[in-house]
Specification:
This protein is of the alpha/beta class. It has 12 helices and 17 strands.
């Protein structure tokens, strides 16, 4: 018999230990964390059979605990493909157990609301698990949960004339309609050999969608959800929808985590798309080196803005150029130059 596995989220070490004892006494296993950031990391790594959530949490260790942090975390859990059906039992201290707060957390998707000192905790856990899912859906999700998921850090995104694949998992086909057209537009590189960012309006106009931006948003949302499910089930990867089609200030764009390859012979209305000779990371770095050799003073922020990449991606790319570049100056006034 598979033991139930819980995630306990509470910033108070004493309360957390008490919850751990109660969970362990029920024959369940657990992980426990004390802040929002640590909880999100755990939730991305694997699935849980249920979650005990204290609302008054800090975002990270050392910060002030706040109720909005807990409610925000609850919303994120409910928005996750892997955890959208996982029972979340909110535990609350005296003074934060008003009817209004209870109503709010139930609207956000909480399974139950238990006041400290948790007299009915075992009953709440049992009831929440019993009603969590229809048996067929529970079987499918639990199969995924038995195996810890690997956080998605990047992979080959291959577009052929028949289908789109990521890390060997087929995400959609040329019969998939609107999302197929959207992806094909997003992988046509610009004159600077970078992947374009397209607004919903631009995509709707080019595809000629009657319902405009709303139809594009719905197609992207559906694709993100389905892609995350497929990658979890078939590749054991914890992948957020934005890891594939990202929403940037300039519009929708294929994520910089992807190494995009377009198969030779794939055509668009405006002609053939060349197969890129280098990965996105190499292209970004070559552009940066070229600009520095021209004497331009560039910063990490310039790199992030040029390619719409995260701070982590920019730091990683620039660190790999360490033997060729150096940072001169300090802080905001510093910049990179060729060694």
């Amino acid at each position: 018999m598979v033991k139930l596995h819980a995630l306990i989220i509470d910033d108070n070490p004493g309360v957390r230990e008490a919850l751990e004892d109660r969970v362990e006494s029920m024959g369940h296993t657990f992980d426990s964390v004390g802040c929002q950031d640590d909880a999100l990391l755990r939730l991305k790594e694997q699935g849980y059979d249920y979650i005990l959530l204290d609302l008054e949490l800090p975002t990270r260790f050392g910060k002030t605990p706040l109720i909005p942090t807990g409610t925000n975390l609850l919303s994120q859990i409910r928005g996750s493909v892997l955890h959208r059906h996982t029972p979340v039992i909110v535990v609350t201290a005296h003074g934060h157990d008003s009817p209004d707060l209870a109503t709010r957390v139930f609207k956000l998707g909480a399974s139950d609301f238990v006041k400290k000192p948790f007299d009915n905790l075992e009953t709440a856990i049992g009831d929440a698990i019993a009603r969590r899912l229809p048996s067929t859906e529970r079987t499918r999700i639990s199969t995924t949960k038995r195996h810890a998921l690997t956080p998605f850090t990047g992979g080959d995104f291959i577009v052929t004339a028949e289908a789109v694949e990521l890390c060997g998992v087929r995400l959609c086909e040329n019969t998939s309609g609107r999302i197929w057209q959207i992806i094909n537009l997003l992988c046509v590189r610009t004159a600077k050999c970078v992947l374009p960012a397209c607004s919903g309006k631009d995509l709707a106009d080019r595809i000629k969608v009657e319902r405009g931006e709303k139809a594009i948003a719905e197609a992207v949302k559906t694709f993100r959800k389905r892609a995350s499910e497929l990658l979890a089930e078939q590749a054991g990867l914890a992948c957020d929808g934005n890891d594939i089609i990202a929403t940037t200030p300039r519009g929708y764009q294929l994520s910089p985590k992807l190494t995009v390859e377009v198969a030779a012979g794939v055509t668009r209305k405006n002609g053939k798309v060349a197969v890129p000779e280098k990965s996105d990371g190499e292209e970004r770095k070559q552009w940066f080196l070229t600009q520095l050799r021209k004497g331009k003073r560039l910063t990490r922020r310039d790199y992030e803005k040029q390619f719409t990449v995260s701070i982590a991606t920019a730091k990683r790319d620039l660190a790999s150029l360490g033997p060729q570049i150096e940072f001169v100056g300090a802080g905001e006034v510093g910049h990179y130059q060729i060694r």
